[in-house]
From TrEMBL:
It is found in: Cytoplasm. It comes from Neisseria shayeganii 871. GO terms for molecular function: protein-L-isoaspartate (D-aspartate) O-methyltransferase activity. This is Protein-L-isoaspartate O-methyltransferase. Its EC number is 2.1.1.77. Keywords: Cytoplasm, Methyltransferase, S-adenosyl-L-methionine, Transferase. Belongs to the methyltransferase superfamily. L-isoaspartyl/D-aspartyl protein methyltransferase family. PROSITE patterns: PCMT (PS01279). The active site is at 68. GO terms for cellular component: cytoplasm. It catalyses: [protein]-L-isoaspartate + S-adenosyl-L-methionine = [protein]-L-isoaspartate alpha-methyl ester + S-adenosyl-L-homocysteine.
Length: 222
């Protein structure tokens, strides 16, 4: 039988190795690397899969959903932050809480006003449980609802991060992005998915295709 302290040490070592790998893969922002190193990803996956928690792979959550691979979480966080100081960010909106891991990384990176929307009630409750376990739920505002609609009552947002792929960018999310804000979103373009960065300026939107991606679909409606 493995003693609990030995088990924690093993997870700590795997998490450090994961962060070193992310740095080699191009993750440069220290806040992102520090967040990935501090959040215990193994608490956000099914117990039977915890030995794979720090591998660079997505894992099933049930209900047809997945937890994104660590690199995807890190690169999306880094893209949303851009070169802006974390202290310069106001509200951040996450669409698709899932198990709560990406949510935890956003807060651990130093973002104090994180809002997260999840369509599926069982995942919404599970994410709250995971965040409590990790001691990170305190300042996160979690909502069970339709992510397509965003959260107009608390908009605008300096950052919007979408963790599921629609066929086109939901108009309400574009409307809720603040001038100077950045949205990171995967789009399904005829069966192939690409990760996009959308920046809102006073003159309109600037769109950049970043890389190929693989996400579950973003479903419109509760």
């Amino acid at each position: 039988m493995v003693r609990p302290d030995v088990n924690r040490s093993s997870f700590d070592w795997r998490r450090r190795s994961m962060v070193e790998r992310l740095a080699r893969m191009g993750i440069r922002r220290e806040e992102v690397l520090a967040a990935m190193n501090s959040v215990p990803r193994h608490l956000f996956v099914e117990e039977a899969l915890r030995s794979r928690a720090y591998d660079d792979m997505s894992l099933p959550l049930g209900l047809g959903q997945t937890i994104s691979q660590p690199y995807t979480v890190a690169v999306m966080t880094q893209l949303m932050l851009g070169k802006l100081p974390v202290a310069g960010f106001g509200r951040v909106l996450e669409i698709g809480t899932g198990c709560g891991y990406q949510t935890a990384v956003l807060q651990a990176a130093g973002l104090d006003q994180v809002y997260s929307v999840e369509r599926l009630r069982p995942l919404h409750e599970k994410a709250k449980h995971h965040l409590r376990q990790a001691g990170l739920i305190g300042r996160i505002r979690m909502v069970c609802g339709d992510g397509y609609l965003g959260l107009p009552e608390v908009a605008p947002f300096d950052g919007i991060l979408v963790t599921a792929a629609p066929a086109e960018v939901p108009l309400p999310l574009l409307q809720q992005l603040a001038v100077g804000g950045r949205m990171v979103i995967p789009l399904d373009e005829g069966g192939r998915q690409y990760l996009w960065l959308i920046e809102k300026t006073e003159r309109g939107f600037h769109e950049t295709c970043v890389q190929e991606a693989r996400f579950v679909p973003l479903v419109n409606g509760t």
